[in-house]
Design brief:
This protein is of the alpha/beta class and about 350 residues long. It is built from 10 helices and 10 strands. The strands form 2 sheets. Strands 4-1-5-10-9-6-7-8 form an 8-stranded parallel β-sheet, sandwiched between helices. A hairpin with a 2-residue loop joins strand 2 and strand 3. The longest helix is centred in the middle third of the chain and has 20 residues.
């Protein structure tokens, strides 16, 4: 299995995020990708390749032109205002307010954000753009005939909607890759999101469509971020009704409980007869993750990989979350090795 990776991820290194009522150092940090890369190399699962540049067009198939224009130029606008530190939103169009797009930088940032967990820095646009190219390059590998590929993306993407950033995410790498498969002739793409946190952005992007099946196993949003999506009764709308399946689980869920939800999700994918699978690979389900509450252990990720492999479909793994930095490499690569060894 080839891994696609770009050093550009280090250009995004937020100094702080707003969480638990205070600004604190970001859990999403460059060392996450560094540990995974080292583990990929140490375990010799395949070549590590730099991405090709497919340009902005495939990204614009998912994200709106206005959003991309804002994101691309937000940092330079912040500098023109003599802004200090990271650019973070502090006001949002909440329920009682109009959802209008202001012209002021901070108002516009709030319009395009849903939390204070996606700091924009000098290198954030380039890092996110390169992460999308990583996903597209791994997608192209599978389109060319490979059975699997790993997109070592950072920053992650599954919380980003078509015109919304948040949860450490700016561009939705998994959605961009899924759309690329469709644009190149596939008719049925399945996304399996195994991150601890619901992939609200991915769900929103495909919620009214029947060509992409979205399945997600995650912490119950009644108690866990992102709170406002990820409930079991969200089944899709219009043409997408019956193509969205969420499996929210209680805090403290162990592998036995998690694996049962995986069986249900895999059953949906098999019934859908997906031509290709995109896995949003978050390993923040690990028992020692600092911001998550499941109890999976490192050997469980081998079993996860084996079960995904049993679906028998070409599979693209796209890296998402995981914040137990010392263990992230072992856990992410265990999924890949389980898949390869099944």
């Amino acid at each position: 299995m080839r891994t696609y990776y770009s050093d550009d991820h280090r250009l995004h290194h937020g100094t702080c995020e707003l969480i638990d009522g205070k600004l604190q150092p970001c859990f999403e940090k460059p060392q996450r990708a560094d540990h995974i890369l080292k583990r990929v190399q140490d375990r010799q699962i395949g070549a590590v390749l730099a991405p090709e540049d497919f340009g902005l067009a495939p990204i614009a198939r998912i994200h709106s032109a206005d959003y991309l224009n804002f994101f691309q130029h937000a940092w330079s606008r912040w500098q023109a205002l003599n802004g200090e530190g990271d650019l973070l939103p502090f006001t949002f169009p909440a329920r009682t307010l109009r959802s209008v797009r202001p012209q002021n930088l901070h108002g516009e940032l709030g319009y395009y954000s849903f939390d204070g967990g996606a700091p924009i820095t000098a290198g954030t646009w380039q890092a996110a753009y390169s992460a999308a190219q990583v996903a597209l390059s791994a997608q192209a590998e599978i389109s060319a005939g490979a059975h699997s590929a790993f997109a070592l993306c950072r920053p992650p993407g599954h919380h980003a909607a078509g015109d919304l950033m948040g949860g450490y995410c700016f561009l939705n790498n998994a959605a961009i890759a899924a759309q690329a498969f469709l644009d190149q002739g596939k008719q049925r793409v399945a996304i399996l999101d195994v991150d601890y946190h619901h992939g609200n952005g991915t769900q929103d992007i495909f919620y009214r469509r029947s060509d992409v099946l979205f399945t997600s196993i995650h912490g119950d949003p009644a108690f866990e971020f992102p709170f406002f999506l990820g409930y079991a009764d969200e089944l899709g709308e219009g043409a997408g009704e019956g193509f969205n399946f969420n499996y929210p689980l209680p805090m403290g869920s162990p592998w036995t409980v998690w694996a049962e939800a995986l069986e249900q999700a895999c059953g949906r994918i098999s019934a859908f007869d997906a031509e290709v699978i995109v896995v949003s690979l978050g390993v923040d389900t690990f028992k020692d993750d600092p911001i998550s509450q499941f109890k999976l252990d490192s050997p469980d990720y081998l079993a996860m990989g084996r079960r995904i492999a049993a679906l028998g479909k070409p599979t693209l793994f796209v890296m998402e979350g995981g914040y137990a930095v010392e263990a992230i490499g072992v856990n992410a690569v265990n999924v890949l090795e389980g898949f390869l060894g099944a």
